[in-house]
Design brief:
This protein is of the alpha+beta class. It has one domain. The protein has five helices and seven strands. Strands 3, 4, 5, 6 and 7 form a five-stranded antiparallel sheet that branches. The termini are far apart. About 4% of the residues have low confidence.
């Protein structure tokens, strides 16, 4: 009986990310993983183009509240605002922006519990820095789930190779199209 109980416990904790809301109380883990699996398969930097499995940090990239303020796209610091007039006003309505902020406030976890397609999880150390490591934020979805925003960082050889806030639009059930980088 003790063996069956242990098996049950292992099963329950191994499927947890796909059925609950581990990362965000507004968006299901299934929606988060569906997008990140697509993103991990599809989006590759030049440095990663010849490798089969992407190296992804198990640490979730943090969204900072300062990035989610409504900034003026003409100001000097506008590149740090996700919601600058130039990019997001044509994509997100005021209600959707408020929903994105609500998702930000409902973020829960700081560690990815399951790997993504064509990737493997790693903790940061010197060897991962040399090969290059990706950091993904928890994606934030529009109210109707047709748009998603993610903060992505690719770090290699002690330098940020690419970083930014990326917006994608859903084209099919598990397919997305790049819309903008802010």
């Amino acid at each position: 009986m003790n063996v069956y109980f242990r098996i049950l416990i292992v099963f329950v904790f191994s499927v947890r990310p796909f059925y609950g809301q581990t990362y965000n109380s507004e968006i299901s883990d299934t929606e988060i993983y569906d997008f990140l699996n697509w993103f991990s398969r599809s989006e590759r930097s030049e440095r990663e183009s010849n490798i089969k499995r992407k190296l992804v940090s198990n640490s979730i990239r943090v969204w900072y509240s300062g990035n989610l303020i409504f900034g003026d796209s003409t100001s000097k610091g506008s590149r740090y605002y996700i919601f600058n007039k130039k990019v997001s006003d044509s994509i997100f309505s005021k209600v959707e922006k408020e929903y994105l902020i609500k998702q930000f406030h409902s973020l829960k976890d700081s560690i990815w519990h399951t790997t993504f397609d064509r990737s493997r999880m790693a903790e940061y150390d010197y060897s991962t820095e040399k090969r290059g490591i990706n950091y993904y934020s928890v994606p934030l979805f529009s109210l109707d789930k047709t748009h998603v925003m993610i903060s992505h960082l690719f770090f290699c050889d002690n330098a940020y190779i690419s970083t930014g806030f990326y917006i994608y639009k859903r084209t099919k059930k598990h397919k997305w199209k790049f819309v903008a980088k802010t």
